[in-house]
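Lab notebook: predicted structure, single chain.

Context: the supervisor wants predicted structures on file for every construct in the current expression panel, including those that have not yet been purified. This is the next one on the list. No modifications to the sequence; it matches the entry in the shared construct table.
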Amino acid sequence: MFLLIWACTGASGDTAAEPACDDGADTPYTFPSGTWSMSLDAVDENGCENAAGNGLHLNLGELTSVTFKQGSGDCLSGDEVPESDDDPAIAWEGTISGSDSFDLTGFAEVIFGTCVWGVEAAMTGTVVSDSELSYAIDATLVVVREGGYTEEGGEWQDIDGACDLIVGDEAHHTFPSLPCDASWSGSGTPE
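Prediction complete. Output recorded below exactly as produced.
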């Protein structure tokens, strides 16, 4: 997940739908498309790590990769490159504003036992040069669905309060609360 590492097991991630930026050449802006190595340089807030040290870990110096693609007009999309198949990856979509700034929103969904939680995120950034950008992310982790699949037929059954099992400050909990907020900033260089 975009610079997000959590201390839990059994999670599996699904990315959002393929970003909608097309390949059109009709754009007044030039964004240095391609894969960028993104570094986490500062943590502004992390309300998603509990007292036992579980949850969302924002580690300074942590690196991840995002592949940006410029579309027609002011459209910009980005796909995070997950480190493993079990890591959720945020699919980003948004706009280029002027020749050097961008605003993207993204979402990733994580199935964790009986709790499906999601990451809703907003990234703002500035292209400093063809070889450097700066960014800031505000993210909220939210409950998407609670329940599980039945053994027969594999149909989803809603169960109110199913996410309560992973919320708290004990070692067996994953998050202090849901929803919870985190924000961080960093820089990027092309790979």
